[in-house]
Specification:
five-stranded parallel sheet, alpha/beta, 11 strands, 12 helices
Length: 264
């Protein structure tokens, strides 16, 4: 679940002349490049404003109907990545239920097998459960289309067998993608979900306390924010209730990804 790639990319987006918009023409024009190019997700944070993305990123997202940031209104979209269980997801679900907040949980194959009861609770309490792939590979590294499809289908089949629901949302592991993976997964019926806020919360050996998590999330809130948090973080679990209350006090409203897609 680690997303260490974000921070080098953030530096590249902040500093001019990093060449973050130079690959699009070649990637679109040569099938081989579509198979091998790896793009990492990141953004330029702005003070008291929505973050900025490159023209290439926006083109990729809009062309393939991806989710990365909502309209500049009061909506917030809360998402969690679940690669393994660290004992905090139940607490997170308790808070979401108490506060009546919808969320999306992106799970892997091993998580579904080992934490079926928690996934069942997510479903029964009205949350979205999305596909984070069966084994958590970087999707662009799977150059065979059939193998990439099976990486998603293997988890989807298991989920459907348990809950009679298909998985409709996909979070690419590590936020890595290219034109081919976006096009192929869109054709399979998935909506790719990226994010417009995240922070280094996944390192369980580097937790800094609930106040730190609260301050980080609140400092990054913006209209239409798609918030990525990791459920393995004790800081996130401890701060979640306060984050929800403070965000609402600021006039924000938590919405489901379904509302994002429907435009409501």
């Amino acid at each position: 679940m680690k997303k260490l790639f974000i921070f080098p990319l953030l530096i590249c987006l902040i500093l001019p002349g990093c060449g973050t918009e130079t690959n699009d023409m070649n990637e679109e024009s040569t099938p081989a490049a579509q198979n091998t190019t790896i793009k990492g997700w990141g953004y330029r944070p702005m003070t008291d404003a929505r973050p900025e993305f490159t023209a290439e990123q926006i083109q990729d997202m809009e062309k393939n109907n991806c989710i990365y940031m909502g309209a500049p209104d009061n909506g917030l979209y809360l998402t969690f990545d679940e690669g393994y269980e660290n004992g905090y997801t139940g607490q997170i679900l308790d808070v979401l239920k108490e506060k009546n907040v919808p969320a999306a949980f992106f799970i892997t194959g091993p998580y579904l097998k080992s934490e079926t009861a928690l996934v069942r609770r997510m479903v029964e309490e009205g949350h979205i459960v999305g596909n984070h792939t069966n084994t958590h590979p970087s999707l662009p590294t799977i150059t065979d289309d059939a193998a990439l499809k099976e990486e998603l289908a293997a988890l989807d089949r298991e989920f459907y067998a348990l809950f009679e629901k298909p998985m409709r949302y996909l979070r690419p592991p590590k936020g890595e993608y290219n034109s081919r993976t976006l096009q192929l997964t869109k054709a399979l019926g998935y909506t790719n979900v990226f994010w417009s806020f995240a922070y280094k919360d996944w390192d369980t050996k580097d937790q800094k306390g609930a106040q730190y998590a609260f301050d980080k999330v609140m400092s990054g809130l913006h209209g239409g924010a798609v918030i990525l948090l990791h459920a393995v973080s004790c800081d996130n679990a401890a701060a979640l209730g306060s984050i929800i209350d403070a965000a609402r006090e600021k006039g924000f409203a938590f919405r489901s990804l379904d509302a994002y897609v429907s435009g409501n």
